[in-house]
Structure formats: C-alpha cells, structure tokens
Amino acid sequence: MNVRRTMGITALAAAAAGLVFVPGAGAQEAGPAYAGSSSGEALNLSLFGQGLTAGTTLAEVAPGSGTAKGAGLATPLFEAGVTSASATEPGSAEETCEGPLEQVPGLSIALACSSSLVTMDEASATAAATGRVGAITLNPVAPILDTPLSEVVGPAEDGVDQLLGGLQPVLGPIDDASDLGLEDTLGELFGRLFDGADLVTVTVGDTASTTTADAATLTTSCAAEGARVDVLSILDGPPLISVVVGQAGSAVDVDRGTGAGTPTVTPALVTVESATLGGTPITVPVGQTLEIPLPEPLGPSFIRVADGTTGTNEDGSTFATADAVSLDLLNGEALMGGVELELAGCTSVAGAEVLPETTTTTPAATAQLPTTGSDDASTLALAGIAGLAGLGLALLRRSGDPA
After folding, report:
1. 183 vs 26, higher pLDDT
2. For the chain, first and last CA: distance in Å?
3. Which are the contacts of 172, defined by CB distance < 8 A and separation ≥ 6?
4. Tell me, what's the pLDDT at 206?
5. SS3 for 132?
6. How far apart are CA 13 and CA 385, in angstroms?
7. Cα separations in angstroms, 293 against 37, 81, 274, 328
8. pTM of the model
9. Which of 40, 261, 278, 325 could form a disulfide with 207 if both were Cys (CB 3.0 to 4.6 A apart)?
10. Using only C-alpha atoms, what is the Rg of the chain?
11. DSSP readout, 153-191?
C-alpha cells in the first residue's frame, strides 16, 4: 500500500468536510423584541338592543410589522368611514369620510371619518390612526312606537301629581312664560316623544392612537376628546339632562435600553346639568355614580365616571387604561331599557426585551508564531482547511516518486 497516497487522500477529504462546517461570517442576530399598541373608542352605544361603535382607532408596531386601523362607525351590519394600513400596504394620512348615514333605524348620523398611516424604515416605525363622527341623533324607534300609547300615558295619568311634581323644575318656567297649562305642556312632552322628538343627541369628539419605535424608545398613546350628550329638549327649551365628558387619554413610554415602562392615564372629567338637580352644573367625582331621577315614563338615568388604571402584565409589558364613562339613560319601563352609552375610552400597552449583558474573558497568553490578518473563527478555520489541502496535494505528488 502506498502510505503517502493514502494520507494525501485522507487530508483532502478532511479539508472538504471542513468547508461544510466553517462558522458563518457576518450573520446578523435579530434585535431585541418589542411591541406597542394603543386603541381608543369615542362612543359605544346600545339603543333598545341595537349596538354601534364610533370613532375607533388602533395603532400597533413590532419588529418588521405595523398596523393602523380607524373607523368612523361600525355596527354588526355595516361600517362607514373605515381605513387601514400596514407595513406591507402603507396607508394614507388623508381622511376618508362617509355621511350622512340613515341605515340604523332611529339613528341619524351626520358623518363618519377615519385615517390610517404606517411608515417603517431601518431606524424607526410609526403607526397612527384617527376616528371621527359627526352629531348622532337618537329618535324613538319601532319598539317604542309599537307600544300602545295607553300603556304609556295611562300610568302617567294615574300618578299625574307625582309626574308633574317631578317635571315641575323643567316645565314650571315654560308654563310661566306661555299660555300653556302644565297638563297641556305634559301632553306636548308625550306628543313630542312619540311623534319623532330627538330623544338623545350626542356630539362626539375625535379619537387618535399613535405608536412609534426607534432604537432608543417605544412610545404609544391614545387620546379621546370626549363628548356632549343632551337628553330631550322640551318645547325648544333646555335639555332635561346635559352631560359633558372631557378628554381621556392613556400612554406608555418604554426605554428600550433598560426595558422600563412609564404609564400615564388621564380619566375623563364629567359635568352634568339637569333641572331635576337644581339646574346647577355638577362635577361628578372620578369613580362615582350620579343618579338623576325622572318620573315615568322616562325613568331614572345614571352617570358613572370611570377611573384610570396602570400596571404591569405577566409578560412584563406596561399598560395604561382610561376606562370609558358610562351613561345609562331613561330607564323607564316604556322605553324598553333606555339608552346605554360608553364614552371616551383609551388603552395603551408596550414592552421591550433587553438582552442580557455578555462578559468576555481573556484566555491566558500562550506562545505562538506571529500571524497576519484576521484571527476570527472563520478565518482560522479556512486557514486550517487550506493547510490540510496543501498537505494532501504534497503527499499525493510524493506518492508518485520512486521509493
């Protein structure tokens, strides 16, 4: 057996195998994970079993992805003024509007608008969405109109003294300034209610959500501008109830270097004015409920002012929530459960992973021959492979020499 030839072939085979397992040069590791999202809702309405949301927004970003969605109006049957954008399908910041809208029985909606925008590059990412809706007017709908008037007016006439006493603060000034008697004014009230009066009018503010990320920070926020709600104006006089809901907001700022999140929440302030409460505006404390008594067939109304919460989720992300203000209006039996509204709600959540610091140790110095060029793993491996290949070729050439 030619020993030199055998050794040469073995060396070349080892060199070829080594090429398969050369450490990758220049491979990039994925950066630390992060995610941020904010969502908002100007109005969530339930009217005699019918539901809709208005002025909704969503803006979220994560590594390599971004989503923005806005809607002026959404119901189980249709949407209006809807936009969306993503990292793969960037949207336009221009607003899209539809209106007026008359598709929901008993509701008249002036306008529904939204916008969505996503921009991303190697250094930063941004998602933003807005939602806007015009005045919403609620009129009596079929369930009320289908109720025999005798079922509504009859009980009121049986307790007319109680009813008139309850409405005296509202009807008294009208009666003094007109030729109508209280009973005539009461009849006018029922006539307006069942012949198409505006039961509730809601003027809703804009909602906006934005999330941005760069190498240093992750910021997400939501702002809902609030609303004004007027309940049943009689003979073009002041509304029985007026509720003004202030701006609500939530935000989370994350330092991507440390992973620390700072939440901020702004609950909406609420002011209520009603003749049955003396006609003086009342500020409802955060976290409290105010009852406004109205006699049948209108029934009592309740205004619940929400608080805000902040904290940390199980996955380490930070959250901030401004809960919506809740209005439960006109709970009289004749009004089929009344009108339920949630106004000005916002939620923000964000978190970022921080890679642990790596420590390097310097091995003890050992005597070695001077080298030139790079000494990284890939270069050293290639040098060893080249050495094996050279040795193998030399042995093969010598194997052909006479012994």
Report:
1. 183
2. 12
3. 182
4. 95
5. strand
6. 10
7. 40, 37, 10, 12
8. 0.71
9. 40
10. 36
11. HHHHHHTHHHHHHHHHHHHHHHHHTSS--HHHHHHHHHH
pLDDT in tens, 31-52: 689 999 999 999 998 876 668 8
Which residue has better confidence, 144 or 118?
118
Strands 112-120 and 125-133: antiparallel
The pLDDT score that the predictor gives to residue 105 is 73
- Provide CB contacts within 8 A for 188, sequence distance 6+: 180, 234, 235
Question: From CA 319, how far away is CA 348, in angstroms rounded?
Answer: 6
13-16-21 Cα angle (round to 5): 125
**Of 164-178, 184-198, 213-227, 262-276, where does mean pLDDT reach its minimum?**
164-178
> Which of 150, 155, 113, 162 lies closest to 134 in space, CA to CA?
113
Identify each DSSP E strand in 285-338 by its residue range: 289-292, 301-304, 308-312, 318-322, 325-329
**Within 13 Å, how many C-alpha atoms sit on residue 339's CB side?**
26
Which amino acid type is present at position 151? E
Rounded to 5°, the CA angle 197-205-321 comes to 120
pLDDT at 339: 84
Are the C-beta atoms of residues 248 and 39 closer than 8 Å to each other? no
Phi, psi of 192 (to 5 degrees): -65, -40
**Residue 233 or residue 346, greater confidence:** 346
- How far apart CA 284 and CA 248 sit, in angstroms, is 15
Structure tokens at 113: 């608008």
The pLDDT assigned to 393 comes to 53
Give, as one character, the DSSP assignment of residue 33: P
Residues 6+ apart with CB under 8 A from 109: 54, 73, 80, 99, 100, 101, 102, 133, 134, 135, 136, 137
How far apart CA 55 and CA 41 sit, in angstroms, is: 6
Question: What is the arithmetic mean of pLDDT over 61-72?
Answer: 94
Closest of 233, 231, 242 to residue 201, by C-alpha = 231
Q: Which residues contact 316 (CB under 8 A, 6 or more apart)?
A: 259, 351
- Does residue 202 contact residue 227 with C-beta atoms inside 8 Å? yes
Query: How many C-beta atoms surround the C-beta of residue 211 within 10 A?
Result: 31
